[in-house]
Write a structure and sequence with these properties.
Strand content of chain B: 15-25%
Largest sheet of chain A: 5 strands, parallel
Number of strands of chain B: 11
Number of helices of chain A: 8
Radius of gyration of chain B: 46 Å
Largest interface: A-B, 40 and 46 residues
Structural class of chain B: alpha+beta
Order of helices and strands of chain B: HEEEEHHHEHEEHEEHEE
Number of domains of chain A: 2
Strand content of chain A: 15-25%
Strand order of the largest sheet of chain A: 2-1-3-6-7
Distance between the termini of chain B: 22 Å
Oligomer: heterodimer
CATH topology of the largest domain in chain A: Rossmann fold
Amino acid sequence: MKILLVEDNRELSKDIVQLLEEKYFIVESTITVADAIEKLNSYKYNLVIVDIGLPDGSGMDVIKEIKSKRLNSGILILTARNSIADKVQGLDLGADDYITKPFHSAELIARVKAIVRRFAPDNNDVLQFEEIIVNMQNNSLKVNNRELVLTRKEFDLLVYFLFNVRRLLTKESIAEHLWGDHIDQADSFDFVYNHIKNLRKKLMNAGCRDYIKAKYGMGYIFGNNHEEK
Amino acid sequence: MNKKQFRLLSKAMLIFFVFIIIAFSVSIFYLVHAMDIFIEKDLEHSFKKSEFRLSSYIQKHHTLPRVPEHIKITLLQDTTIINYSIEYKDTVMLSFRSNQEETFRKKTFIRKIDNNFYRFELVKHLEDFLKLRAVIFRSIFYAFALLMFGVLIFNYLLSGMLFKPFYLIIEEMQKFRIGTNSQRQNINSSTIEFRELENMVVEMTNRINKDFQNLKEYTENMSHELQTPLTIIRNKLEKLMADEIVMDKQSRSIKSIYNEINHLSNLGKTLNLLTKIENGEFQQTKTIHTKFVIEKHLESVQELASLKNIDIQTDISEEHTINMDPFLFDIVIKNLIRNSIRYGTNEGPITIHADKSELIIGNFGQELKFPSNQIFSRFRKLDQNPGSLGLGLAIVKKICDLNNLTISYNYSDNQHWFVINSVEVV
């Protein structure tokens, strides 16, 4: 899986590259529109992550280039401008998603993975973790090969975990992922707790092992090596 | 001090009108007075003529003349009680000419002719004078009224023409919306003052627009430049959070930094939004049928409410509409409902009611601990809860103010009520 990152802040660029490489993506980064277009002409990328404000132009130009060349790449806009006009324009041009800074690492990973899946050559829309199998195409879930029905939010939560295995997901990040800004952060803790509790109960009732662990009072980690703790 | 207000033209006309009435009354008074003096003089002259004729006759013939019945001349026998005073009296009597009751002036006086005292009672016809006086008075009145009317209309038209550029300038200023570059029409009045006024208005609007652009760029840059460092800090911190060794030692500090970054990032986003709203950047005003929007929003928060065991009861008329940018209305609804879920208790349901003219959202809860008129102030919070910015209601209030809506708050029956009403635009 190859990703091109177009972001002019070197520090942030380095962080994102590292973050994605941990998830076994191959990431190349550029700073300018010109470089990005050059790279797009020479190599094939599954996903292009593009900032809007770039030193030599707008990230929108990169999107236009991808669309005009009919390149089969997903596009994720990464911008500090929380402006609807930008968002509408970007999505109209053919971007797949739009994420505003400051974002949570886990949120970025989830969005990247969601787009990459759609553009994956084998189009294998299944997420698997041990005995849990999620079919993204029809939003169904199997645990130990038996169908398990979750609510919409529980399902989203599980997918968010599966996209971020072994990574600490803070309550804030989970709340934002599930409810956007419909919710005050202060209330999010109870809601998140409730959903985690229900999800865990349903999974364990289906014979699943307990993969969700609360950590430091800050959030939750989904994974299978909690033995040391 | 709330003074009664008039339009410039009406005010000028009113003053002019009062002036004309006064001038008119004075003129009429003067004219009538002059006429009366003339009548008196004429009458007196005619009395004198008759007196002269009669006394000459008496002097010549030593006998009383034959006179019409209403003239009386008597020889006074008793000369001791002679009263020389002259007496005038207006009387109504049967006219010998027209056989109708008419007004006469009677002059009674004593005159000595050849050692004899005669009492004269002369009568002059006054009716014609009075009629003439009335006719003249009426004509003057009509003439004046016509003149006044004409002058007023002329003045009105003239002022209207003179002040037209002034009203056009005002109209242009009313049409001015900050941030929108609408085409302004040139007025080019030939009146120097209005030309100066127009130039000043143009200069000022240009400056305002420029300042606005600068401010907009500033807020945009500010938000842009802040968000990237915040992202870096947050991502680095999340990396630290993934490190168990660090977390075991420093989880408390990291948690606190993390919370503050979240707060800062939300604050930045929200203040930026508030600035954008204040700058009037959302002006895609449409007539919104609120029922649909509210119900759609409720779908996404239903779950949050049920987690707190709060019911949401709605009774929204399909006729309720609001004119504003749909994006802003989303914010209003989102913030109000979020607020009622956040502070609502499960003593009873959250009520959302809308009829044709007003939208009411109410939730149960304890009375405010601060004066209720501060509820829409920025950074006014019920408690020092780090998760709440204290900007939600300030934003709602701002949006309402900018869209000719009033929002009011009151507390009754253990419930907090927010009511949104349309302001009648005159």
